Amino acid sequence: MHARDEKNLDTSIGSVQLRINELKEAISSMIFKIEHDGDSLNWPGLLDNFALLSGHLTSVSKSLSAEKVPLLRNFSVLPLLITPVRDELLVQMTEGRISTFAHDLVPDYLRTKPDPLVEQKIASYEPKAGNLTYDTQQKQVAQFGKIINHIHEIADKAKQEWESETSSRTSQPATSSTVDTHVLVYAIGSGKGLKSENVPMVQPVLNQANNNLMGMGRSPAGQPSGSVPGQMVGQMNKAVSSIKTNIKAASTMAPYDRR
Amino acid sequence: MGEPIGTAMDSLTAALKSKIIPNQEYFLQGSVMDTAVQVLLHRLRGLCDNLDSGAESFHDHEMCFSIRKGPPPEQGLSLRVRRAFDYLDAPWQLRYIGQPEIGDKSQPTMVRSSLDIACSSTIVEFLTELGCRLDFECILRGYMFRKGRMKITVSKVFKMVQGKTPDGMEAISQSYLVELSVLAPSGQNAIAEDIKIFADQLKPLVQFEKINYFTRPH
């Protein structure tokens, strides 16, 4: 049972180490890239690199939280031998970063508690927090919550604005219209909409019908239709134009007679 | 007398056979809205050859004459006459353009046969005497660019209003017509690919299409 646990621990640490090595290689290749072709490096390329890193990080955290992996925090690392003598094996293992497993380095590398400075600060804050009355605590918590909410709102607003801006930008390509293209091409190609003979052929008939309509409409008003020819013509033209649009609409409804 | 004409015809057919007459027009058409035309012109200034001189503007009057060979269902032969309003001493232009070939999807552009020739202003009289009648006319005003053999025109199409001066014309659309075209001898299909590439450079500002304007939309 004990042996199995140990084996399990070994394999899981091995897999974590493998993942961390991959991550390290990715980081070093990225640093190399930034240092050597920093001038030609473009933003999409850099983003790709970041995506790679994040993928590796995810796989590290996945392998840490895998079911078979025992809770690593239940294990402790003990420095068994501390010596100022240069250790070649250690140099090789750490790729030249650490040459001695000495007193000044060990506390840094095997630290499980915060930095002493940080610890001191925390220690100075804790009694302060403990001395506060319940009411002031509640007040401060509420205030803090309020500030956080406010910041959240600002961020949300900025996000909404940004999104609406990008969406308006993507919906912007209303720089050309297929309908207009067709109108123009048919006009130039086959004279659709440019031919003037069609209109006079239709107009006389329309004018007659229009005259009748106008006469009927005008007599109750007591105005003899012939008395103001100028006005009449103007009105007729107006009416004709409106009727023309009607005819257009009708022709779209029954497209087969216009072929 | 018959001999010189014969040799002229012979040399013409020989020229046609050896494919040195640029009588094929490879072209694509699109449009750009009035609001975006400045952006397009700016981009074309950057892409095209006439960098130093800027865009060449034009203001033309086009008349399309047709003559029928048979009863109405048959497509008449149409001839186009163009004259420049802005260069009154320039010759008029007579142009024949054939029916466009759309081709399938693998064909990047449309192709139509095209022949043009400079002529004098009496051409209208001449055509009328031949029995042609004016089919339609319009006014085109816009800008022309060149890129290698390619001609790019951005033009506004105006309808002729009867009894009015050229200033009193009305635009038929809120957009400018954009045409890319190259005149080449037949069989030079590689040029079509160049046009397509250029058209792609103008996306999404202008969407070029292959539209067969001889068959009307239903």
Can you describe what's shown?
The complex is a heterodimer of chains A (259) and B (218). Chain A has 259 residues and is mostly helical. Chain A has nine helices and no strands. In chain A, helix 1 (2-36) runs antiparallel to helix 2 and helix 8 (198-218) packs across helix 9 (229-253). The longest helix of chain A is centred in the middle third of the chain and has 37 residues, at 134-170. With 218 residues, chain B is an alpha+beta fold. Chain B has an eight-stranded antiparallel barrel. Chain B is globular, with a radius of gyration of 19 Å. The model of chain B has no long low-confidence stretch (mean pLDDT 84). At the A-B interface, helix 7 of A face strand 1 and strand 6 of B.
Q: Which key phrases capture this entry?
A:
heterodimer, A: 259 residues, mainly alpha, 69% helix, B: 218 residues, alpha+beta, eight-stranded antiparallel β-barrel, 4 helices
Summed up:
Chain A is mainly alpha-helical and 259 residues long.
SSE blueprint and pairings:
The complex is a heterodimer of chains A (259) and B (218).
Chain A (H helix, E strand, L loop, with lengths): L1 H35 L6 H22 L23 H6 L12 H4 L6 H16 L2 H37 L7 H13 L7 H21 L10 H25 L6
Chain B lengths: L1 H16 L6 E10 L3 H11 L8 E12 L9 E8 L7 E6 L12 E10 L3 H8 L2 E15 L2 E10 L10 E2 L3 E10 L5 H12 L17
Antiparallel strand pairs in B: 1-5, 1-9, 2-3, 2-6, 3-4, 4-5, 6-7, 7-8, 7-9
InterPro entries (chain B): Mediator_Med18
Main location (chain B): nucleus
Organism (chain B): Trichogramma kaykai
